Amino acid sequence: METFLLFKDLIGKHVYPSDWMAMIMVQNRVFLRAINTYADTMNLKFLNNNDFEVQLWNNYFHLAVAFITQESLQLQHFSSTKRNKILTKYGDMRRLIGFAIRDMWYKLGGNKICFIPGMVGPILEMTLIPEEELRRATIPIFFDMMQCEHTVSTHFHKFENEIILKLDHEVEGGGGDERYMELLETILLECAVARPLLRPEVEHFVTLVKGLLVRLLDYRTVMSDDSRNNRMSCTVNLLNFYKDINREGMYIRYLYKLRDLHLDVENYTEAAYTLLLHSRLLKWSDDQCSPQFEVRSCQTQRQLKETLYDKIIGHFDKGKVS
């Protein structure tokens, strides 16, 4: 466990300057060999129920994902000459560790449930790497996670919620593309064919995630667009989508993004109406409310509603003046 933590720390801290590619690749090759050696020991000594160590396996998965997603291995960002040189000398280490993560996951058996939803985000991050074979090898892990949670709980709500939450974050950060959306749909539906009882829920999930991905990719594209109307339109599409699927936290997140777009161009009246949508979700009660953005000081729904109304009135006043 200490070695895993040390390796993860070294990967994150960039021991060598980014242009020392030979040293970085040698270091990565050593890490890869060591991680795979440790994995063999884990399978021998810490896999059976009596000896199973959740934290050790958790550390392994997080280290392996940190390794596979590190900047120095993202070959798509390099020139073709540099990429070919790396592939010739070292191979694509992302594939090697990705296949190892997949194999280690399937060895977990009944212990898989310990890693749902905790490992959903890291596995998602790995599947978003734009490497076709890696994606084909690792996307089926999602179906396995669904099956696993469904067996225990007769649903896979935890998995679904985590995917939606993390997908939003990852796509906004630059991950994902049209091809990923196609592969995700094809692979999950193919996996579901053998499980007729689970198939309707998987189909619903695929439709949901595909709808979200389309909107997130559109949103990411227009955020670099000069057209303010396009940005507002895509933001509204996303917040309405989250409202329709009852994801209140994400709906509110995009309400505030829309509010900011209005304030950027001094549309104070529209900003006020946007905040009004949030205020309508709150009750005049002393129920606790989850902290929301800049109003973290509010403990109860009543306090938050009052604070929002103060802001709304302020925006309406500014809108009237302008």
Radius of gyration: 23 Å
Largest sheet, described in full? none
Helix- and strand-based class? mainly alpha
Q: Count the helices. How many? A: 15
Helical content (DSSP H or I, runs of 4+) = over 70%
Spatial gap, N to C terminus: 61 Å
The backbone outline, from C-alpha atoms, is globular
List low-pLDDT spans.
Answer: none
Proportion in β-strands = under 5%
Overall mean confidence score, pLDDT: 94
SSE topology string: HHHHHHHHHHHHHHH
Q: What's the quaternary structure here? A: single chain
Topology, number of strands: 0
GO molecular function: guanyl-nucleotide exchange factor activity; small GTPase binding
Keywords: Guanine-nucleotide releasing factor
Organism: Hucho hucho
Family: Belongs to the DOCK family.
Keywords, separated by commas or semicolons:
mainly alpha; 322 residues; TPR_DOCK; 15 helices; globular
Blueprint (SSEs and pairs):
Elements: H1 2-13, H2 21-45, H3 54-69, H4 80-90, H5 93-107, H6 120-127, H7 132-138, H8 140-153, H9 157-172, H10 178-192, H11 199-222, H12 228-244, H13 248-264, H14 268-279, H15 301-321
Keywords: Guanine-nucleotide releasing factor
Domain DOCKER: 242-322
Family: Belongs to the DOCK family.
Describe this structure in words.
- Helix content is 71%, strand content 0%.
- The chain has helices at residues 2-13, 21-45, 54-69, 80-90, 93-107, 120-127, 132-138, 140-153, 157-172, 178-192, 199-222, 228-244, 248-264, 268-279, 301-321.
- One of its GO terms (cellular component) is cytoplasm.
- This is DOCKER domain-containing protein.
In short:
The chain has 322 residues and is mainly α.
